[in-house]
From TrEMBL:
Coiled coil: none annotated. InterPro entries: Tscrpt_reg_PadR_N, WH-like_DNA-bd_sf, WH_DNA-bd_sf. The lineage of its organism: Bacteria, Pseudomonadati, Pseudomonadota, Betaproteobacteria, Burkholderiales. It comes from Paraburkholderia hiiakae. This is Transcription regulator PadR N-terminal domain-containing protein. It holds the Pfam family PadR. Residues 11-85 form the Transcription regulator PadR N-terminal domain. It comes from the Bacteria.
Amino acid sequence: MLRHSPLALAVLAMLTEAPMHPYRMQQLIKARGKDEVVNVRQRNSLYQTIDRLLRGDLIAVRETERDGAFPERTIYEITDAGRDTARLWLREQLAQPAREFPAFPAALSLLPLLPPDDARRQLETRVAALTRELARMDALYAGAEAMQVPRLFLLEGELMRATLKTELDWTTSVLGDLKAGNLTWSEPWLRELAERFAPPSDTPAARESSKES
């Protein structure tokens, strides 16, 4: 079975509504605000995804059209297998938490590479960026509410805002501990920890023993 992705699922979802060409798919995703959760900025990624779905028989070419001076456009439609697969992928993504590897937790795991003051400055920059993004999302949500958009179509935004707010609150608390000196480190302390928690075969005594043998 084809490996799913948010973009592949979005393409299948668009084609369940009606046959359409890639540019129309991209514009609909953007117009509905789904580009907040589905990356359609790179047109090439969209075409690559469509090609994968086509090879997997989840979509098919319906026709090719030419509109005046515009280049020739290929219209795609979803197949029965595509409809079944879209529902299967959606069920899986709703029900099963995916083990993902986002960049921020990975960076936090390597925080001691920076001196405490440097780490503090970077997190201050992040808090400012998170605050701006939260304000942007609040403005988008207020606009959608003013237009009386049903909540069904705002759920992903609610989750993104809740996640963003949690990250902002947590990062702010870590920043507070860095500023207060409650969270700190130094090179001697890190070396001491590295020796203390080194695997038994990697301790100085073990290395000396290995040389003697």
